[in-house]
Design a protein that fits this description.
It is a single chain. The protein is mainly beta and 131 residues long. The strands form three sheets. It has a four-stranded mixed β-sheet, with no helix packed on it. The protein has a four-stranded antiparallel β-sheet with strand order 6-5-12-9, with no helix packed on it. Strands 7-8-11-10 form a four-stranded antiparallel β-sheet, with no helix packed on it. A hairpin with a 2-residue loop joins β3 and β4. The chain starts with a strand and ends with a strand.
């Protein structure tokens, strides 16, 4: 669970908490802040900075799983990925970042270039929005 601060026209500001350290800011029951975010090295999976992401698993080239520290309330979230560059940045232009599996505890995705080849990017960022 999380700490939730919800602003609603009928109830004003209502706060609930469970001590998990995760915070949700809501407007009329809809979360407005990221549930999790991470900046990591795609070659190693090493995290540079994060919120509610405990680890990044590098499953294979370009294939990663973000493991949430505290589970989301459901798997109906919206992950957004921004890819950095490789050593061949002039030729490896990202074409696709495909979500493979969504769960309340993790999100798995694959980075692909034109032609469908999976690729690691040195700098990657992912933010997860939802309720």
């Amino acid at each position: 669970m999380t700490t939730t601060i919800n602003a609603s026209p009928s109830n004003g500001i209502v706060q609930t908490a469970d001590g998990s350290g995760v915070m949700k800011l809501q407007s009329n029951g809809v979360t407005t802040n990221a549930l999790a975010w991470v900046n990591f090295n795609g070659n190693t999976g090493a995290i540079s900075a994060s919120y509610n992401v405990g680890s990044v698993t590098r499953n294979a080239t370009g294939d990663y799983t973000l493991n949430f520290t505290t589970a989301t309330s459901d798997a109906n979230y919206a992950p957004i990925a921004i890819l950095g560059y490789t050593a061949a940045a002039t030729t490896d232009v990202p074409r696709n970042c495909t979500g493979k599996t969504w769960s309340t505890s993790s999100f798995r995705f694959v980075n692909q270039v034109s032609g469908g080849a999976a690729v690691d990017y040195a700098y990657q960022s992912v933010a997860v929005f939802g309720n």
